[in-house]
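Notebook p. 47: complex prediction with JBZ.
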Amino acid sequence: MTVDLVTIFPAMIEPTRVTGVVGRAIERRTLDVKVHDLRDFTTDRHRVVDDVPYGGGPGMVLKPEPLFRALDAIEAVREGPLTVVLTSPQGTRFTQAEAQRLSRVDHLVLLCGRYEGVDERVRERVTEEISIGDYVLSGGELPALVILDAVARLVPGVVGDEQSVAEDSFSRGLLDFPQYTRPAEVIAPGADPSGSPTLKVPDVLLSGHHGDIRRWRKRQALTRTLARRPDLLATADLDDEERAILRELKGARDGRD
Ligand code: JBZ
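Predicted complex, structure tokens below:
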């Protein structure tokens, strides 16, 4: 997969290009991520990318021509159709399902908005407009990085363990079960040392009973999802055992006073 990201702040993107899962995929050439500085597509001495809005009002708007030239340059290099994403508060919400869909395209372009927005005519060349959520940001760079990370890890070969990607609880529509690592017991930080209270790993995880562990994890994931994100349960992909546990948990919840 190739990703071309257009921004006025290339420095915001560079750390992601060289770090972690995305960095490793680029090194291994499973992923090709090119960052384009929008100012390189200006033609004036001062490399101006923005201008005042027609009709007046506060703030500045990204000019259309540098974005069109950037897209022309990308089109000239990549063969085949481009999926052109504009990150914008007016976009449809980014979800795991959207990440899955985008992970199957060959050439992805991410246009990062800035200022009060981009000239409306740029949308002529945009195939989708995506928002990562309802909060005010100063630009589309962080949303583009969120999209890049979520999409890249679904591209075959980017994350080593395909199984872990497929089983990732969020792609099944549930929150994760709690995770623990060694040691099996730690002294509670900040607690009274005379009483030496300790924080223990749940016994079931040390038991070696894989069936018990699997059921405990399911119950924990469902308990958390019911408490924190009950909305997810409407569309979660549950097996028979999980449906039975969920009925039990809901019964306990509804039965209490
Ligand atoms: C986004 C104009 O630049 C912006 C500003 C906010 C913003 C984006 C671009 S993309 N918020 C989001 O994904 O929600």
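Notes: The beta strands are 2-7, 32-37, 50-51, 61-62, 83-93, 107-112, 128-131, 185-187, 198-200. The two ends are 54 Å apart (CA to CA).
Next step: compare against the earlier run before touching the bench.
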